[in-house]
Write a structure and sequence with these properties.
5 helices; alpha+beta
Amino acid sequence: MPAVRSTEADVKLLARLLRAEAEGEGRLGMLLVGNVGVNRVIARCLDFKHITNIRQMVFQSPGGFEAVQKGYFYQPARQSEISLARKVIQGNRYHPANFSLWFFEPPGACPPQWFNQWNTGRFKSHCFYKPTEADCPSVY
């Protein structure tokens, strides 16, 4: 059973997001971004209380993804990204983004906390952060 409901348009939209946010991070980097996106749809907490579908998650503003906010979310989805999007929509989770709702690229080491959320690890240039179970039990 999928982690979130989706249409074919949603899959392609998520695939575009994966490409825009993490193409340079390779397949796993894109899967990790997908995990964060899907987690935001299922979270129903914190900054994501009113996010109920992939389209809302992708275009959330403020608080959304940098690629969408800063205008480099323009390339079409390729079959490779569409495949990755399907994996995360189906519920596949990858460490360190298993339960993460945020990621960012710091100039140096990953801070242990970011906006009161705990670091779960780093993949290449991105650090990932998850809420506590008390703050956001639906992500777990």
